[in-house]
Design a protein that fits this description.
heterodimer; A: mainly alpha; MetI-like fold; two-stranded antiparallel ribbon; 18 helices; globular; B: mainly alpha; 2 domains; 12 helices; transmembrane (chain A); cell membrane (chain A)
Chain lengths: 318, 272
């Protein structure tokens, strides 16, 4: 299966061997755990993730101010949202930021990942620094960049030749640019890791064959490496899309949705409606729309990446 | 031929190094400078003053308490994950029943649920349960949202255990329980440390649940402390960056010790 070839765990050599071993005849079910072992985790998860997920659907048809009891209002929230220019704008902004994220991060992380998978002498040292953004909370990253890009005391005030008057947060274009840049800064290392693992798993035979045929480095990259990264590319892009749809802290801290509503993406609008305007019904409706979008995308992840087939492909091993 | 250095990629990686290194330098340098020095000489210059006031300032505005709260949240989340996920992963890998594969599917689907999606009903549930503004009200949902990824990582590592070992134990008449404690748990130490690091990162960096589910200073966590500090002292950039650096220290320490576990765990996320 292709999932074996692109396995992203080069260090786990034993894993590959065990996968290649022919299926051992498993005649007995003696000593196999019952599903009861999975029940506590499933119950806990159901209570804190699945139940709220069902509730969000119910609440989206209710009006609730957080104090009095929720009241059924039918599709009122939905029709209000459909007529709300800020909501429509927020969907457009969410899509824009998501696409920008994918376009900026994909080429960058493929290049860095392939580079890091090779035999570079200084890689170990550099990769420690590279991956630091991965560890930081979105809060810390956003606060850091808000400070670095401060119009009066930050880098723009120093480099006016590059930033003009320096107030990057005062205008829609630059504010969106900052948001896309900060997300790229934070998440590129993660996607680099995905590609690094995948690039290491490309069978060396392919490169050896290409070299015999006289293919140069760049032809090898475009004709072997890139096609071999296809599965990881799809997974990584889908993770970027789900991440893009749910960006929140970055917007809350860097722009507060502003100037005006110029960077009010849907997730921020949901927070604003529910927890600032105390209109939890509308908030739920926006949240539900986000869930539906994220679920559709991750169903695609599961299909494409073969997560759901993992069990059957491992049948012989387990 | 492939061993020849790749200059183009090397140059690209140097650009990235600057993009990551420069902000980190500015941050660290600013943290050790006085406010006047930073304002007069700008962020990129070399510091001409040295002070630790930016750190003490953060502690004066309550960061000690926030650290303690975050520590409690993180420890409890790790505890819950370690209690629930190993049996779950064991069942996913070893049980043949349809119920187990349904549960596995539930968790796969759960990977897709963003915290924003459930925050309104979570606020309702936690308030109804009387846990609003209580650390337990933050711990429970945070732990729940660590489960899907942890289950995926740990079941991946449990699959590496050779089937012969199970069969040998089954031959000796070992119960699933004995296999779990004497075979599976000792052999999944790598996977266990990955899920510990992963959950710790999630809990330490969590923002939305604390933002919505807590209110008072006594339940505030570090990320919220940062957010409030920014709103209140936005102009005091060295002070603010001092707080940012403080918030990172524990995670960087964990990273130094557990880099392998973390990087491998994250690598396994997308490549399969």
């Amino acid at each position: 299966m292709t999932t074996h070839l692109t396995s992203a765990r080069p260090a786990a050599g034993s894993r590959k061997e065990s996968r290649r071993r022919p299926p051992a005849p498993s005649t007995t079910t003696v000593g196999r755990p019952s599903f009861a072992w999975a029940v506590p985790a499933a119950l806990f998860f159901a209570l804190f993730a699945i139940v709220p997920l069902i509730m969000v659907a119910v609440l989206s048809f209710m009006s609730w101010d957080g104090i009095s009891s929720p009241e059924f209002v039918g599709t009122d929230n939905w029709s209000r949202l459909a007529d709300d220019p800020v909501m429509l704008k927020s969907i457009w902004l969410t899509l824009l930021l998501t696409v920008l994220g994918v376009v900026l991060q994909t080429p960058l992380s493929i290049l860095l990942g392939v580079w890091a998978a090779g035999h570079q002498r200084n890689r170990a040292v550099l990769s420690v620094i590279y991956f630091i953004p991965l560890l930081l909370s979105a809060t810390a990253v956003s606060v850091l960049w808000r400070a670095l890009l401060d119009p009066n005391f930050g880098i723009p005030a120093e480099a006016t030749w590059l930033f003009g008057d320096g107030n990057l947060f005062g205008e829609q274009t630059t504010a969106i640019g900052v948001l896309a840049f900060v997300s790229t800064w934070q998440f590129t290392p993660f996607h680099t890791l995905i590609y690094q693992g995948a690039a290491r798993a490309v069978p060396q035979v392919l490169y050896q064959a290409a070299e015999i045929d006289g293919a140069g480095r760049y032809r090898q990259f475009f004709h072997i490496t890139l096609p071999q990264l296809r599965t990881s590319m799809i997974t990584s892009m889908i993770l970027m899309i789900v991440g893009g749809l749910t960006t929140f802290e970055t917007v809350l801290i860097l722009t507060q949705g502003g100037p005006g509503t110029d960077t009010t993406i849907s997730a921020y609008y949901m927070y604003d409606k529910a927890f600032k305007s105390f209109d939890y019904g509308i908030g739920s409706a926006i949240a539900l729309a986000l869930v539906v979008a994220a679920t559709i995308i991750s169903l695609i992840v599961v299909r494409v990446s073969g997560y759901d087939k993992m069990r059957s492909s491992m049948e012989g091993v387990s | 031929m492939r061993r020849r250095p790749n200059y183009l990629a090397g140059a690209g990686s140097l650009v990235w190094l600057v993009l990551v290194g420069l902000p980190l330098y500015v941050m660290l340098a600013a943290t050790l400078r006085t406010r006047q020095d930073y304002a007069e000489n700008g962020p990129v210059s070399l510091p001409d003053s040295f002070t630790l006031d930016n750190f003490t300032g953060a502690f004066d505005s309550g960061f000690g308490q926030y650290f303690f709260n975050t520590l409690v949240v993180t420890a409890c989340v790790i505890g819950i994950v370690l209690l629930l996920v190993p049996p779950l992963a064991y069942a996913i890998v070893r049980s043949r029943g349809r119920a187990t594969s349904a549960i596995f599917r539930l968790f796969l689907l759960g990977l897709a649920i963003p915290a924003q999606a459930v925050i309104v009903p979570m606020f309702y549930l936690i308030s109804e349960a009387g846990l609003y503004d209580n650390l337990l009200g933050v711990i429970l949902p945070t732990a729940a949202f660590c489960l899907p990824m942890s289950a995926l990582i740990l079941s991946g590592s449990m699959r590496d255990i050779s089937p012969e070992l199970y069969e040998a134990m089954a031959m000796d008449g070992a119960s699933p329980r004995r296999m779990f404690f004497q075979l599976v748990m000792p052999l999944s130490r790598g996977g266990l440390s990955t899920i510990v690091v992963f959950s710790a990162l999630q809990a330490w960096n969590g923002f939305l649940f604390p933002l919505v589910l807590t209110q008072s200073d006594s339940t505030k966590v570090v990320t919220l402390g940062l957010y409030n500090f920014q709103t209140a002292h936005g102009i005091d950039i060295p002070g603010l960056l001092g707080a940012v650096v403080l918030s990172m220290v524990p995670i960087l320490l964990v990273y130094l010790f557990a880099r392998r576990a973390l990087v491998q765990g994250l690598m396994g996320v997308g490549g399969k």
